[in-house]
Amino acid sequence: MNVMIRKEEEKDYERVYEIHLLACKQENEGKLIEKIRLGDDFIPALSLVAEMDDKMVGHILFSKVRIIGDSVFETLALAPMSVIPEYQKKGIGSLLIMSGIMFAKELGFDSIFVLDYEDYYTKFGFQKVSNWNIKCPFRVPDEGFMAIELINDSLKNITGTIEYPDEFKNFNRIKKLLYDSQT
Q1: CATH number for the 3-182 domain, one of 3.40.50.150, 3.40.630.30, 3.60.15.10, 3.40.50.970?
Q2: pLDDT tens per residue across span 71-129
Q3: Which candidate, 39, 51, 79, places its Cα nearest to that of 162?
Q4: H or E stretch at 32
Q5: Angle 13-24/28-38 helices, nearest 10 degrees?
């Protein structure tokens, strides 16, 4: 399997939208990415695509979020990530995550947060956020809110609540994942 992970370029935008549409069967992820690209929290170097068999088959995006407490701590959110169905279960998602973690470290970020029910992210070192003094801004099951420290103990003395940018506020998948858990 020959997979190449590279930074997204402007010419990739339409295909990235298609990847998320094919993988998720709805437009929310693609629309979220478009909104994030226009915002202050977009980091072009952390919008990555996966190519295999001479075609783009996956995408992952990491963007800035903040932990608001006694002080403000800048960190990253991993969202969204998609691999088109016929290329899933081939390790492409794993390569996207590992590459993103590596690039985030190189850019000097200390941690990454993700919202998802799956245990998928634990194999990369993500742990329940309840291990630290950090809260989600809405009710979410403990196992659905995870983080990874890119530098040992970088979250140890951080206290506060994650603040997601406005771009995330109407993202239906996150709303469904999180708000359905309140009932």
Answers
A1: 3.40.630.30
A2: 999 999 999 999 999 999 999 999 999 999 999 999 999 999 999 877 889 999 999 99
A3: 79
A4: helix 28-38
A5: 150
